[in-house]
Amino acid sequence: MHFLVSKPIHLLLFSSLLLLSQDPISAEDPTFVFCSPETSNYTSGSQFETNLNRLLPLLSPNGPTNLTSYYNATYGDDPNIVYGYSQCMSGATELECNECIKNSTVEIIQRCSNRMEAVIRYYKCILRYSNRPFFSVVDTTIRIELILLQDAENATIYNNKLGIMMRRLASEAGSKLSKFTTGTTDLNDFQKIYGLAQCTRDLSAGDCTACLEGMISRIPICCENKKGGNVYSVSCNIRYDPYLFFDNSPPPPLPLPTSPPPPIAVPPPPSQPSGETDGGKKNGSKTVIIVVVAVIISLVIIGTICTCLWMKSKAMRRKPVFQVQDRAEISITEAESLLFDLDTLKAATDNFSDANKLGQGGFGAVYKGKLYDGREIAVKRLSRTSVQGIEELKNEVALVAKLQHRNLVRLWGCCMEQQEKLLVYEYVPNTSLDTFLFHPIKRVQLDWITRYQIIRGTARGLLYLHEDSRLRIIHRDLKAANILLDGSMNPKIADFGMAKLFGVDQTQGNTSRIAGTYGYMAPEYAMHGQFSTKSDVFSFGVLVLEIVTGRKNVPFCDAGQMTDLLSYAWQHWMDGAALDITDQTVAEQCSRSEVFRCIHMGLLCLQEDATERPTMSSVVLMLNSQSMTLPAPSPPAFLVGSRVNSGSVSRASNSTTSGSDKYNRY
User: What are the tens digits of pLDDT across the range 480-520?
Assistant: First the structure.
């Protein structure tokens, strides 16, 4: 990202001891505002400005907010797409956060007029937009440092305890979904040091901790031997202070009565029967009182024990911690937005009734539901004998919960109660691409404009997985059945149960468990278990040819001979008749240049040598630039009768786990 400055900015705010209990920045002034250079401007009245004006209201809260509140959205299409997010910061109350974000949506336009990128940060909130994707990317380019000028009495001890506390807070903040934590450390018997650490919620645990540690490393430079300091960046911030500046106090005790209660009127005792002494009556009363008190105390103790045991058992059922390959952790109880009660999901789906059943997949059934707040959901109910067991569930929850892109299906939560394993997704009304593309009647709803939109959107979603998310993610089962279509027929990639995570420096992997759908699998994966981003590119190439032709990549008869889609497309390409493979339902009204370019690009993705296949960034560029010259493709892999023997085909075919899925899209 480019800003008006090319190096970090240091700002010193000189405050006195009197100001320690106040916010370091006034409510009216932002901590910092940065805009992209004037060379990166948009024109008034342009499509980018229209998209920005439509994006900003999406970032403004319209309901309750707290420290876990985070809003992100994208709007528009390339090259005028706008990305943005907003988040509550520090100790903001609901009212403060709402007002702060709403004010930011106005201030950011006024302060960064016509700029393509901008960020504004107040003490209570942050708002950012850009024409480039920046979700899950650490940005410490801009840094603001504020200090308290009062010196610590024993600087060595102070700095040592401060460092230990802040590093602990950095680790704690990274492990929480809120990406926020506070803490204290005892300086001596009479003094404490209070600390705060916070990141934007799109960061991973590792990136958040690393960002905070970078801010902590600035303390010896900006704030050495000082009692208080703040270091802000776009992605994270820290603060420490000798006075309590955050609210961590316990709830106030119940108020005590100001005067003793009035005495209770006791009726005079009845006259004694003859022969009964006062001593005997008093002894009997004492016995009754002792018995009653003992029973009450016993009942209270038993009730308390039962309540504690019930709450503990419930907490054990509802507090899973998921670990994925990059060691990142998601504690479901840290964010209520990811946790659903089983009773809630039963009510939403009418107890998983057949009337709400969307379909049955290899891993279980999918049901449509409606929550109390009106949101429509799709609930993936994993069967108890499902191949996708607890490991796949952990993988999918931990993976999909962190993915934020309009061309990916959004995970809203999960539930693991009473031996049920449930995933809750956004409901996508038009089901999957294959239900339209290969249906003799429904396929007419897919005109060429819609098909081209699906190709481009799927490419953008796959590019995000490969390059723009914080980790390199390989889907491994990209196919028409796993492309869902929303109400506007925009594509959303689904089904991440077999996805693999990689570090940014890792490009490929190997597995002995071949899982996927035959017809979409790259040859190096089907035969040798080698998968990479280029194996996803191969699957994308098959998908593109299916969308153009309306044919499945299965053996079929053409001119009296058996062939498959790849051989069929390659033969027409070599004969100079590539456009003849176009689906006849769109052949008359399609853009011939766009169709030809898609076929050309699809064949490039299908080349047998994985190194010759383009990356998804190149594919997106090919789709967006009609002037770009494409190289000549080499023959695709798996041509009928060529390089694949029957044993290889059999192995790949027997390894299929989801080829027959009809509704396991989520």
Answer: 989 999 989 999 998 765 555 544 444 455 544 445 576 78
For residue 635, give both structure tokens: 């023959």
Total Cβ atoms within 10 A of residue 213: 17
Look at residues 300, 425, 308 and name the one whose alpha carbon lies nearest to residue 375.
425
How far apart are alpha carbons 305 and 308 in whole angstroms?
5
CA distance 477 to 23: 51
Which letter, b or e, does each residue of 461-488 get, where b requires 16 or more Cβ atoms within 10 Å of its Cβ?
A: bbbbbbbbbbbbbbbbbbbbbbbbbbee
Q: Cβ of 424: how many Cβ atoms within 10 Å?
A: 25
Looking at the predicted structure, is the pLDDT value of residue 255 above 90? no
Amino acid at 193: I
Average pLDDT of the chain, as a whole number: 76
Q: Is the pLDDT of residue 130 over 80?
A: yes
Angle at 341 between CA 335 and CA 344, to 5 degrees: 120
Q: What is the DSSP string of 348-416?
A: HTTTT-GGGEEEEETTEEEEEEE-TTS-EEEEEEE-TT-SS-HHHHHHHHHHHTT---TTBPPEEEEE-
What is the model's pLDDT at position 308? 64
Higher pLDDT, 9 or 216: 216
Question: Active-site residue numbers?
Answer: 477
The rounded distance, in Å, linking the Cα atoms of 32 and 475 is: 39
* Between 381 and 644, the higher pLDDT residue: 381
Q: What is the β-pairing status of strands 226-233 and 236-241?
A: antiparallel
The residue type of 215 is M
Specify whether the CB–CB gap between 103 and 216 falls below 8 A: no
pLDDT, tens digit, for every residue of 106-115? 999 999 999 9
User: Is 633's pLDDT higher than 60?
Assistant: yes
Helix, strand and coil in the chain, % to nearest 5: 35, 20, 45
Q: What is the 3-state secondary structure (H, E, C) of 34-94?
A: EECCCCCECCCCCHHHHHHHHHHHHHCCCCCCCCCCEEEEEECCCCCCEEEEEEECCCCCH
pLDDT-based confidence at 23, cuts 50/70/90? very low
Residue type, 464: Y
Which residue, 90, 60, 89, is CA-closest to 72? Answer: 60
Q: Where on the phi/psi map is residue 44: left (φ > 0), alpha (ψ -120 to 50), or beta?
A: beta
